[in-house]
Amino acid sequence: MKTVFNPEDISQITTKHRGSHGSLISILEDIQATYNYLPRQALEIVSEATGHSLVDIYGVATFYQSFSLEPRGDHVVSVCAGTACHVRGAPTILNEFERKLDLKAGKTSADRMFTLTTVNCLGACALGPVAVVDGEYHRNVTTRAVGQIVEDCRRTAEDSRSIKDSGLFKVEVACPVCNRDLLTHDHMLDGYPMVHVTASFGRKHGWMRFSSMWGDYRVESEHEAPDNTIIDFFCPKCHAELRSTKLCPRCDASMIPLFVRGGGVIQFCSRRGCKEHMLDLGD
Ligand code: FES
Fold first, then answer.
1. Which CATH number fits domain 75-165: 3.40.30.10, 1.10.3720.10, 3.90.550.10, 1.10.10.350?
2. Who lines ligand 1 at CB under 6 A?
3. Cα-atom radius of gyration of the chain, to the nearest Å?
4. Beta-bridge mates of residue 183
5. Ligand 1 centre from 137 Cα, in Å?
6. Which of 19, 79, 105, 250 is the most buried (most CB within 10 A)?
7. CATH 3.40.30.10 residue ranges in the chain?
């Protein structure tokens, strides 16, 4: 997530969604994902690029609770304040979150780690009190569970910090054929979205996800490939095969290319277990 506003980011986002159906919401989603809120300057650029009036854009931005016009913390905790949750003890749960986070509802902590909000009915009334933390629903929340939830968030934040301290850095990658994002916010690793592709070997075909941290080799896959297996990779959006003309300098298997947002290409070896990868940032 970026903390410094760069108009170039917004131009890239508007260009990416130009002409697509429902593009305004997609643009706002990408800006929200980039900065964790919608900076005013960003909305002005969107208005100019898309022809939508600022009034319309603010209308959309304020209609959906997933958008925020104020900077948000890395972790967003939302406690349902609907009637059913209220009678099931939501006020006590909210108080406990406020106490554990040392934060009033509607506020973001000074270190931008947490934002605590209340929301209207989340549609899970029978499971109240309900809280949503970073998009994950917690049902029948107790004051004891609040402590655990906050502790888990803090641990995730700690892990992310140690990744930063270790010199690893996040890369945002796209398909080299259709240029669509390959990061999935549905599957996070240490607080960062994973790289999602489709993989095929033998008769097996399924998803594969990698850490988006450069130098971090953690992989999850639908089918476990034995070491030394050559894997064919495909874009999950356009289904094009991802294969470079380059061969791995260590083992001669084909390299797999991915575009890097901001410029350059990452190439990694298609052989399971080979850690050869290279980052060409171009000129
Ligand atoms: S009132 Fe909380 S989910 Fe409906």
1. 3.40.30.10
2. 80, 82-85, 121-125, 128, 130
3. 21
4. 195
5. 12
6. 79
7. 75-165
